[in-house]
Amino acid sequence: MAKYFTYNDQQISVGDTIRVHFKINEEDGKIQTQAFEGIVIGVDNRESNKSVTVRKIASDNIGVERIFPLQSPYVISLELKRKGNVRRAKLNYLRERVGRGATKVKESFDNAKIVAPVVTSNVVSKDAPRVTPKVKAKTKTAAKATPKTK
Fold it and tell me: Choosing a second label site near 78 at 20 to 30 A (CA), which of 16, 18, 61, 65?
């Protein structure tokens, strides 16, 4: 059981959300291109028989799975939409889930761009405006004690 495969110098692993563009032959002899976007639930990474199983949730919460052989001339391209972080080689447990829970996989933060502020030095120049926090002054006022009436 494989957890990942390489397609056009791009590593795609189980749990990733991908979009597969593939050709469909119609009855008229026309060739149409369709896209299938879903979660990779399994990878068969044999040398010449590489295939990937993709699952998506269609309308009315119906799960649809397709197995795409990667060496097929009908598969045009694969797009990686989102990296997932899973610990299993096969995500068969997603088949039992319904609705949004069937598409929930932890997101991997390997490719996330986390922008942190860059501090160059701790020295503040004389021309820089000084920022002082505004503190609300507390005033002591003598509260008059009023007797409570019944």
Answer: 61
- Look at residues 60, 104, 53 and name the one whose alpha carbon lies nearest to residue 82: 104
pLDDT in tens, 9-33: 888 889 899 999 999 998 888 999 9
Q: Is residue 141 part of a domain?
A: no
Q: Domain of 69?
A: 4-103
Q: What is the DSSP string of the chain?
A: --SEEESSS-EEETT-EEEEEEEEE-TTS-EEEEEEEEEEEEEE--SS--EEEEEEE-GGG-EEEEEEETT-TTEEEEEEEE-B--S-S--GGGGS--GGGGG--PBP-SS-----PPP--S---TTSPP-----PPP---PPPP-----
Q: What is the C-alpha end-to-end distance of the chain, expressed in Å?
A: 81
Residue 58 placed within a domain? yes
